[in-house]
Amino acid sequence: MRYYLISGEASGDRLCDDLIQSLRRCDGACEFRRWRPERSVMGVWEVAAQLPRLVRELRACRNDIARWKPDAVVLVDYPAFNLRIARFAHSRGFKVYWYVAPKAWAHGEGRVDALRRDVDRVYCIFPFEPEWFRSRGLEVRYFGNPLADILASEETRPLEGGRMIVLLPGSRRAELSFLMPRFAEMERLMDASGRLRDLRLVVAGAPGLDMEDYRRHIPAGSRMEVVFGRTADLLRQAEAAVVCSGTASLEAALSGVPQLVCYGFSPLTWKVARKVVKVPYASLVNLILGREAVPELMQDAASPEGMLDVLERILTYETLRSRMQADYAGMRAALGGPGASMRVAEDIYKDLESLTA
Question: From CA 144, how far away is CA 147, in angstroms rounded?
Fold first, then answer.
């Protein structure tokens, strides 16, 4: 079979890589073609500024699909781009599968109609999603979450240096613009007050970004380090993590590191988000468990002072850390057992095989 896969950001790329490996094991005669949009953006102003580029990429991707003529178009997350590709692919008669259902439960409930119309099968990776989608008339499939398998397959390599706090400010430049200056000010407060002064601050560099993306936010004389390609190692060895909400929060929990989740937007995007976002939490850990298992600081509350206060509590109180670890165990159980991506791959392959039988 010929599979055309599209993923648009670092977290989706990892899931896409894992799914490709699973499809190879299912389909001995498989061929793959993959499209990665240049970079993902989010937010009202941010998307508007990049609209010409997005339009060009959509046109190029549609043309590429039409030329290659795959048996299946597999869309991995990234709904701003992939919903438009789904409509095109469906209209041309290609089989369309969606892996990692759009977070319509957070915002954009109207996307359910588009999924129903343009996608043959939708695969969820969070346990609360099937009931939500089915209650709105969309049949979805849930085979568990693949991230635990991905992390387990990554070899741990010890890092040199002392005790550390790992900082994950996100994989988009807009996220860095919000969180990195706050991390720099938090470091200044730590140095001035002596609070947590013995801990290193290490930024986990995201794929798709480079050192200059981080350096522009780090003041001269800062002791913040930026390390690329070692996120799993950093999380496994850190005393605590400050995490941009999203997949990084889930990865931190699966790695067992106590965490603080912070998030924010430009003022315009935040104003819009307050009206359209419908979920009570930003962290996937909290959404999966249905309660605040890890602390969250959003927008103005994500101040350097607020971050430092929460980190100090996490690192000082053993009962808080123990409770977080117990919650992590409950979350792992809710995510299901190993082999999620293989089950998705088998389901896709069997469906395609049934068409040629």
Answer: 9
